[in-house]
Specification:
This protein has three helices and 19 strands. The chain is an alpha+beta fold. Strand 13 and strand 14 form a beta hairpin. Belongs to the flagella basal body rod proteins family.
């Protein structure tokens, strides 16, 4: 009985975590460049249940030998294994602001080992020199003319150097080159990950950092990778609100079902202790 008690409790914990994740996705449905998280729920190893009995051997000494009969497998519950962002392209929203830049995925190869598609990111740097990556292209110019991300990080060029401009009257062409007048000032630094779910982790404020603090290779030099930049556009969140609401209701119902199972076990234990024990 106690095995089922813990199995139902583990199901409640997993669905509670799922609900929290879906709620966070829904709250960021209008966040620029946000990538929806996906939860992986796994089952604990099953137990093989056997019944143990005895059998008397027809001999003069009447020996007794034990025997086992397999009853079947028993699930021991579920657990949340990991939460990974879904790096699909969000919808483009026109802002007509020169400092707003979006990345447009065109041809991004699928990783043969994992079956997941790669992704490209803007390269930014904090005040301590740490490299981070983002899809949020809502940039601004600070007091010194440096191009900065919403988090305050400096936007880097293809040589991992800060981009300093004379004014916000610049042009970004499709290949990431920044022009002031007809003069090329810089080229946006774009990193490429062939499996961002494994190579990147969230670092808050729409930023990602490479695992083991490594750097992503340049997307310009990656084979078979093509993308473009759009000035005056921002990439919206890739959260599917209708699907997220449906999944939230499903998680709630699953939590409720496990809760009722738990209550049934609790009533059975109560009877076993307070009623059967009196006999």
């Amino acid at each position: 009985m106690l095995r089922g008690f813990y199995t139902a409790a583990s199901g409640m914990l997993a669905q509670q975590r799922r609900t929290e994740l879906l709620t966070n996705n829904m709250s960021n449905a209008n966040t620029t460049g946000y990538k929806a998280d996906q939860l992986s729920v796994r089952s604990f190893p099953e137990m093989l249940i056997s019944s143990m009995g005895g059998e008397t051997v027809p001999t003069e000494s009447k020996l007794s030998m034990s025997n086992f009969f397999q009853v079947g497998g028993l699930s021991t519950g579920v657990y949340v294994q990991e939460a990974n962002p879904l790096f699909t392209q969000g919808t483009l929203e026109e802002t007509q602001l020169n400092t707003d830049i979006s990345l447009v995925d065109e041809n991004l190869p699928i990783n043969e080992e994992t079956g997941r598609q790669g992704s490209v990111f803007f390269t930014v740097q904090d005040g301590d020199g740490a490299i981070r990556y983002t899809r949020n292209g809502s940039f601004t110019l600070d007091g010194q003319g440096y191009l900065t991300a919403p988090s305050g990080h400096y936007v880097l060029n293809e040589n991992n150097e800060k981009i300093q401009l004379d004014s916000d009257r610049f042009t970004v062409v499709e290949n990431g080159v920044i022009l002031e007048g007809n003069v090329q000032t810089a080229r946006l630094g774009i990193g490429y990950s062939d499996d961002p779910s494994l190579q990147l982790m969230k670092d808050g404020e729409g930023l990602y950092k490479a695992v083991n603090d490594g750097d992503l290779p340049s997307a310009y030099a990656a084979a078979d990778v093509s993308f473009s930049t759009e000035q005056g556009f921002l990439e919206g969140s890739n959260v599917d609100q209708s699907r997220t609401m449906t999944e939230m209701m499903s998680a709630y119902r699953s939590f409720e079902a496990s809760q009722k199972v738990l209550q049934a076990y609790d009533k059975s234990l109560d009877k076993a202790v307070n009623e059967v024990g009196r006999l």
